[in-house]
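Re-running the complex after MR caught last week's input typo. The corrected sequence lines follow. Everything else is unchanged.
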Amino acid sequence: MRKTAYSLLLLLAPITGRSQQPPESPERKPAYEEILPFPETETSDDVFSGEGESVWFVPPVSGNRSYFPLGRLARQLFFAGYRPRGYDPEHTGYRINGAAVRSLTESYPEWDVLTGIRAIAYDDAETPGLLPGLSEPGLAGGNHDLRTAGLLRGTQNRLIYSLTDRSYTHRLRYSGHFESEKRQRNLSLGVDRRWGRDGFVDGLFTDLTTVSAAADKRFGKQTVSLFYTGTFGKRGLRSAATEETYELAGNPYYNPNWGYQNGKVRNAKVRGTDAHFAVLSHTVGLGSHTVLHTALSFRTGRNTYSQPVWYDAPTPYPDYYRYLPSFPGNPETAEAARQAWESGNTAVTQIDWNGLYEANRFHRTDDPEGNRSHYALRNRVTDRNEGAVSMRVEYRPGTHFGLTGGLDFQQAGTHDYARMKDLLGGDYWLDIDQYLLDDEYYGDKLLNDVRNPERRVREGDRFGYDYRLSAQSWKAWGTAACRSARWQGFASLLLGETAVRRTGNYEKEMYPGNLSHGKSERLRFREYTVKAGGAFSPTLRHRIGLNLMLARTAPPGRESFIAPDHRNAPVPGIRTIQLQGAELTWDYTSPRVRLNLAAYLTFSDRHAETRNYYDDLLAEYVNLVMTDIGKLYGGVEIGTEIGLTSRLTLTAALAFQKAEYRSDPAIALIRDSDGKMLLEGSRSYLSGCPLPGIPQRAGTLTLDYRFPKRWRIGAALNYADGNHVSPNPVRRMNRALDPAGSPELREVMHGQEKLPEAVTVSVTLGKDFRFRNGHGIGLWVLLDNLADNRSIRYAGYEQMRFSRSDSDAGGTLTPFPSKYYYAYGRNYYCSLSYTF
Amino acid sequence: MKPFLSIPLFCVLLLAGCGYDAFDASDSVLPNLPEANVRIAGLREFYRDGGATTFTRDYVIAGLVTASDESGNFYRSFFVEDETGGIEIKAGLYDLHTLFPIGRRVAVRLKGMTLGRDNGVYQLGSKGLPSSGYETDFLGHRALLDRYVVRGSLADAPAPSTGTIRGMREEFVGSLIRIRDLCFVKGGRETWAVAAKDSWNGKPSSKDVWAKDEAGDSISVYTSGYADFAPDTVPVGKVDVTGILLKNGKNYRLKLRNPNDVEKR
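Corrected-run output:
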């Protein structure tokens, strides 16, 4: 009953602290109501109360030690960019019913799949930090093993309507659970529909639907489960802007991506999703001590990302630096620009869609095929098909010892290309490389595909680039764990390999033959993970743990190539990422107090990164290749939950972290047009620069009060400080530092801007009504950032461009101003639910 | 509630999207062009007062675009011509041909603009900065350009006025002119200008290419090193040449809009 009630609460609770993409991470349940994977007779209540008959001082080896206050910190401070320990998303492992939810080619998490599982009831057996997961050793960021089978009892339905002003306006969710009379079969269904415009940022919208279903059937000792989730729809996106632009617009939520077309707001950058993920899993008991889990998963889908393209025409983006009043030297021009911005003339401050149509229509041509578009809207398309097989064997002869091992095999393939979305009034687009049009040397080698020279592209046609990435990965792993009354220890080992290859379908004229067309060399990365750790409980309430890790893992496949859109060339010297980590933990639990402390240190080295940009110092479009990037993550985390009274609970979480570059990466600059090396053997002095987007100090303090008759009220104070903008590596190279005429100017070039601290207050109010027939109504209201603080810059980046004091080489360099994002002001989220 | 009763709920919630990314083509309604109340040739009267003049009254000129920057030979400006003459609009933007293609009807509201003259060509723009040495400066921003210049529909390509080298006059400077039966002195042996890839220092350079007519009079064709036809070879034999008439000191010169301005006889 309690589990049922909690699961229903899970569906009821709002998403807190979220700004915009990426989407919410899975909701984390309070540990005192956690459903343990095993053993089934022991509940976390017995362990943490210390009053049960159990003599086990330590939790089961599954590691139900949770960072639940820090999970709340991540949710409360998502607007400030906080993520636990600042790790890149690929450090955290996710599994659904044993199947890995992980891309071999991309660096970002599979948010559409992870969002999908939230539409139905699920359990998250989270193992934080360096602890090994249930289904794999994992890396440094912990593991989430999500299960859908057999969690709920009986038949339940819930309908929830939510109203908000963050990213969308309306949300309608349905979840249903049905169990057969003999409890042999379960079916869960969920639909989650979000739609509407953002309440703060013009042009931002959400129109997404998620459908999920899970079914399982028990046959004696066997359980077969099927899980499916699909997400489809679109989202309008936002871009950062300079402080000058925000001031001119008089709006910290200015978004340069949109403009009016026939009086309607049109966003140039729209992300489309059509993603499907399914898992067929089987669990069987082999004897009394052994369980075998097998999972087959399949993922298919299409992601699109629209963006304007233009040829022989000015950029359509309204915040291009030359369009701002700070650029013109003539005071009359500057004043006219300022007046146009401050008066809100959307033909100047936003994309002038009508002007783009005009440019496409009003020009003379003798071409029988009509007008060639100067402007168009294209979609960057990624089609994905992936399959995986996972097997896991658990052997537990008793409660003292456990052995788990598994095999994973994953095959991933993507097909990437550009597709013409809208010709904006023109008749065709000519498929050439417009960046070479004005090139003095290669202006006659413009073809994107020599096998289809000067292709005339119509709406719906592929053009520009066309290639496939294929990746395969196999892993074998094992974890041994043992425990006594006071001691616990584990050791994990993983061995594996990931390979990736690019296959070009277009032959680019500048990169003939296999340089762009056909198969690239196969890049192979040998991987391993070694983890070991232990915990000691001197008393029933205390637990001290130490965990260590050493690992090498493959980089995301797409990032292993310099310019995968057009070329087969891999990043020179690309290697596995090397990880070393250690963490020391202390947990205290009493009937009213729970306290978690952790100190950690992780080194993550041998990263590689590429950037494509216009280099003002060389006056060329270049590929910047950075290798030997080293990162350091270290800090202290404190989380506590205190039951001040039977109704009043205080929760606090604090994180003091140091996340910074710990090396000076090697830099190579390669001319984008012909692949010629322009600069190599140089370094960027990034060592000591904080990693971007990570508050170095973060905390939340929450009070929750549960009134009689199911009222609940809460208040939270949230704090984040020490976040920095993303640094431009070129600014830390000698070629940019040497022209600085004084130590002060050199410091300006090298210095990295710290974003201001952020403090917000939020309140929540909830009420449940229960009826005799078992139905119920719930109401939940969240008000965030009560003080309406609209000056919180939560992210930013240094631009790659410079301006010179004069036109000759050797003049003083001035970096372009940085661009920022501002967090929402006062915002709300209200939910009304009906359970039946 | 039986599972199958949930299906209608499913369907309701799967209703089609909201159309945030669905758009009909833009209407592109053009504004009515204001009526001209002064001829382009008449603007010279204002200049004769002794130098650059900033207009303070609601004068309007109207005409067709005769030259723009599509080939890269004209830099950040375009030419407008009515039946009395032509004038340069120093817009100060790039890729002006997308909004001001040859043949586009335009009207120019002169109040606030400055009239200047450079090498015989009358120009409209902002007031020139004292340090620049020019009487007019580029407008430099779309907000200013839209304040002064109104764009109309697309007409047929404007026909040039035909003349001879000997018949060139000051009042034709800035107009679209065709001169027949020219022969380039170094036809087949030189290029229109020096493109960057052909220059010794990697920088493009402009050039005058000389031609003679049957009367033996000479005129130059001036081409920027940034023009996309700069590395093309000057043709051999008799040709008709169309271009904007400019001046260099005492000599007249033509500036091509694109390679089609040279037609073989």
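None of the earlier attempt is carried over here. The CA atoms of residues 108 and 149 of chain B lie 5 Å apart. DSSP finds three helices and 16 strands in chain B.
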